[in-house]
Design brief:
This protein is α+β, with helices and mostly antiparallel strands. The protein contains 18 helices and four strands. The protein has a four-stranded antiparallel β-sheet with strand order 2-1-4-3. α6 crosses α7 and α9 crosses α10. The two termini are 33 Å apart.
Length: 470
């Protein structure tokens, strides 16, 4: 397990991980990419001398959507609402980290943050506004609104401004929902392009966006801290009767990490619950500890087989969810063996044996034979279900099926090797948790040779024959 744990690591997410490679669309996309690389002489060195953050990022932007909190059907463009929109985006524009991620001008001698040309409130305040956000007059707002909406009747106007308005704006003559964008610059300092060391560069963006995210949630919208397992985004962002929905790739990744960490805590509770229930059912903390150990061991060992033997490099969050499958199947397998061992006490009589070794051997043989067959049936059918999943053309789902099948098989092998030994050890030497597997009291067959001789004279031929066969 320790050696196999060295292979336990997530792979770098790829752009095409979830793409079905042999579809017509995928083949056409690849063809276009290859063709562009062959015929465009600028492609090879297009990013060779890119100045940091002088290109609008394809991934790293911040989107704000503004709408009435009560969903009323009237123009959202009022002086108060535009002031709120401006103040909301000012939290980002005036944040101390914004100059480190903003889109820079191409002036090499005097680089500075460009105007936010895609910011909706700046359509009214002016692109060079200083973010003081004063209250505008109604006449100014009406004139600018009419100009923008009238421009939507032309293809060029729709191309420039259509993305800011809800689809019914032209028909109504006013918007009830508007959208605004803030572009970040790429690549960051120290990177040659936006595709250079993607994970590392994304991490840098996230570090710079995270303080702003905390500020706008905690101080601006004054959202309460989420409870255990909750999310701050489950609480609507409302300011002065205006509901704001904001999203960016970086905030999405930050929230994704938080949710995964929260879910992993829930998985810890699942492990604890299964352990307690196994201890209650089997009556032995030692046996349940061995059962949990074999469940946990199957994951890194399975990862080693998955990566080294099967040669599958992809390993992501989806694969880690196998823990819940193995928990259920592994605990059930231990229950089957523990129950068979308890039942064997009624079937195998001590009176037929002259020593403890043969007695334990026959009980274990009976319990083991029943368990091995029953557990094999359930484990085999479960593993085959995941083998069928491995036939999926979607790569992450297919590899999940392979990994799950491996872990289920490994767990079965441990149940029929490690757990029987643990049962005997617990019966002979260990204490108990709930009064079932308790420390063993010496029986009369351990009192000396005379007792053994007397017992041996009473042994039935049938018992001898059965032990010899076994």
């Amino acid at each position: 397990m320790v050696l196999a744990s060295l292979t336990w690591s997530n792979t770098v997410p790829g752009e095409f991980d979830w793409v079905i490679a042999d579809t017509e669309f995928s083949e056409a996309t690849d063809a276009i990419g290859y063709a562009t690389g062959e015929v465009d002489p600028l492609n090879e060195n297009a990013n060779a001398n890119v100045t940091a953050r002088t290109n609008p990022s394809d991934w790293h932007t911040m989107t704000h959507i503004y709408e009435w909190e009560d969903r009323r059907m009237e123009s959202i463009l009022t002086p108060e609402n535009l002031k709120t929109m401006c103040e909301t985006e000012a939290v980002l524009a005036t944040h101390e980290n914004y100059p480190k991620i903003c889109l820079l001008t191409k002036d090499v001698d005097n680089p500075r943050c460009t105007n936010m040309t895609m910011s909706f409130p700046l359509k009214f305040y002016g692109e060079g506004h200083d973010w003081t956000c004063p209250l505008l007059s109604s006449d100014e707002i009406v004139d600018t609104t009419e100009t923008l909406i009238n421009s939507l009747s032309t293809p060029l106007g729709m191309l420039m401004y259509g993305i800011h308005f809800d689809k019914g704006t032209v028909g109504r003559g006013y918007p009830v929902m508007v959208r605004s964008f803030v572009n970040f610059g790429a690549p960051l300092e120290g990177f040659t392009s936006e595709d250079d060391r993607i994970n590392e560069q994304n991490g840098e963006f996230e570090k710079l966006v995270k303080p702003w995210e905390a500020e706008i949630n905690d101080e601006y919208f004054k959202k309460p801290a989420p409870g255990f397992g909750g999310s701050v985004y489950m609480t609507p962002s409302v300011k002065n009767g205006l509901q704001v929905t904001y999203w960016g790739f970086d905030t999405q990744q930050l929230e994704f990490v938080r949710l995964v960490e929260s879910d992993m805590l829930w998985s810890t509770f699942a492990l604890l619950f299964v352990y307690i229930w196994m201890s209650v059912h089997t009556g032995s903390c030692i046996l349940s500890s061995v059962g949990m150990l074999q469940i946990v061991c199957s994951l890194p060992i399975g990862c080693g087989i998955y990566k080294l033997l099967f040669g599958i490099p992809y390993f992501d969050t989806l694969q880690t969810l196998v823990i819940f499958l193995v928990l259920g199947v592994g605990a059930d397998d231990v229950f089957v063996l523990a129950d068979a061992w308890k039942q064997s006490e009624k079937t195998v009589s001590k009176a037929d044996y002259i020593n403890e070794v043969d007695y334990i051997h026959d009980r274990l043989f009976l319990a083991y034979s029943r368990t091995a067959q029953a557990v094999f049936n359930t484990s085999f059918t479960t593993a085959m279900a995941f083998v069928a999943t491995a036939m999926s053309p979607i790569m992450p789902i297919s590899t999940f099926g392979v990994y799950a099948a491996i872990c289920i098989i490994l767990n079965y092998l441990m149940v029929i090797t490690v757990t029987p030994a643990a049962v005997v050890m617990v019966y002979k030497n260990m204490g108990c948790c709930f009064g079932v597997f308790c420390k063993k009291v010496p029986d009369d067959w351990s009192n000396g040779g005379a007792a053994i001789v007397k017992k041996e004279e009473m042994v039935s031929k049938d018992s001898v024959a059965r032990r010899t066969c076994m």
